[in-house]
């Protein structure tokens, strides 16, 4: 059976990508920056049959900027690159945000370009590379975005933001978020350039797909020490279950996808040797809506969920942009899960983990 190299296997999305490939019969080689999480990952309950059958292997490849994939990539059929720092701090842009994202992506793709066994490469991208982030999302009603669109912020814009001490006229996003989205855009552009240069140099043929995900939610299966510090996707959702009087955060990234559907998108991109960008979005959502759904799904714990303003969803009033997902549905045949399934399965998992002492 075929083998895939998966970078950053300890992440929320990557853990599900690994499981998806394993369930389809693939052998998975997952990479780690250090050996500290190796035993925890091998102990993930969902991975047990694949660890026992020798289908899951882990490689310590070092930092994103200087990762060594020489051994891990040998003879694999495909590469899925999910590893990227999710850093929203306001530190110096090029060192703290750009370098890890850019060098992490190019090092993996350059390794893939050198190994003739690699036929497909998939990179986890983001809506951050696509959206019109110069404007507030709730002033963009009527705007339709697709795979041809790009985040208008440039490297020069980020440098100026640093020079200005982080002072920005952006109506909604703090500097750290702008830095993150810009770094993901530049990393994606570098990926396309790497493929183009590899072909010009007479290298072997390999497809490149970028899965541009929106906010990803769902049940975590990766090793966690805390639900409140389990990564952005888990933290913001779990925060809705900390008491009925706890305020609900504004929904600034207004579209979502279930983590299992995002994982399936990565798998389909590999097996179809897909080429191009693919917006991976189930549709608009609001944190208020998620709280309302959860309150109805778990009536015995209804008082746990933030009350907020039931029924008031900002993507409806005042509205927001539209992200077209026609391409991925047509080419990959993906039917996105409804938000009710995502919310129910996520909180079911959260409550299971609470019983094990996590909070």
UniProtKB/TrEMBL annotation:
The keyword Oxidoreductase applies. Pfam families: Epimerase. Residues 4-142 form the NAD-dependent epimerase/dehydratase domain. GO terms for molecular function: oxidoreductase activity, acting on the CH-OH group of donors, NAD or NADP as acceptor. Keywords: Oxidoreductase, Signal. Residues 1-18 form the signal peptide. The keyword Oxidoreductase applies. Belongs to the NAD(P)-dependent epimerase/dehydratase family. Dihydroflavonol-4-reductase subfamily. This is Oxidoreductase. It comes from Kwoniella mangroviensis CBS 10435.
């Amino acid at each position: 059976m075929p083998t895939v190299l998966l970078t950053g296997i300890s992440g929320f999305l990557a853990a599900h990508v690994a499981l998806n490939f394993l369930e389809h019969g693939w052998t998975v080689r997952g990479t780690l920056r250090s050996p500290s999480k190796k035993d925890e990952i091998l102990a993930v309950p969902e991975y047990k049959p694949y660890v026992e059958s020798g289908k899951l292997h882990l490689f310590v490849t070092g930092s994103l900027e200087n990762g060594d994939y020489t051994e891990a990539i040998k003879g694999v059929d495909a590469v899925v690159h999910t590893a990227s720092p999710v850093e929203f701090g306001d530190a110096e842009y090029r060192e703290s945000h750009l370098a890890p994202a850019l060098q992490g992506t190019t090092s993996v793709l350059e390794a893939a370009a050198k190994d003739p066994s690699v036929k497909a490469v998939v990179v986890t991208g983001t809506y951050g590379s696509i959206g019109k982030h110069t404007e507030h999302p709730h002033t963009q009603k009527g705007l339709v975005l697709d795979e041809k669109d790009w985040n208008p912020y440039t490297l020069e814009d980020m440098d100026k933001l640093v020079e200005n001490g982080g002072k920005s006229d952006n109506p909604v996003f703090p500097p750290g978020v702008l830095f993150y989205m810009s770094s993901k855009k530049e990393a994606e552009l570098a990926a396309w350039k790497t493929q183009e240069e590899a072909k010009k140099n007479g290298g072997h043929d390999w497809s490149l797909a970028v899965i541009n995900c929106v906010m990803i939610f769902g049940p975590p299966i990766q090793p966690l020490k805390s639900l409140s510090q389990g990564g952005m996707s888990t933290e913001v959702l779990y925060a809705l279950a900390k008491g009925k009087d706890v305020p609900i955060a504004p929904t600034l990234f207004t579209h979502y996808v279930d983590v299992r559907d995002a994982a399936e998108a990565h798998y389909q991109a590999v097996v179809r040797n897909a080429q191009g960008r693919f917006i991976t979005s189930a549709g608009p959502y609001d944190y208020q809506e998620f709280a309302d759904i959860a309150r109805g799904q778990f009536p015995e714990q209804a008082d746990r969920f933030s009350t907020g303003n039931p029924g008031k969803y900002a993507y409806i009033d005042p509205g927001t942009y539209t992200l077209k997902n026609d391409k991925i549905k047509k080419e990959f045949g993906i039917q996105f899960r409804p938000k009710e399934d995502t919310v129910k399965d996520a909180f079911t998992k959260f409550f299971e983990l609470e019983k094990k002492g996590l909070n």
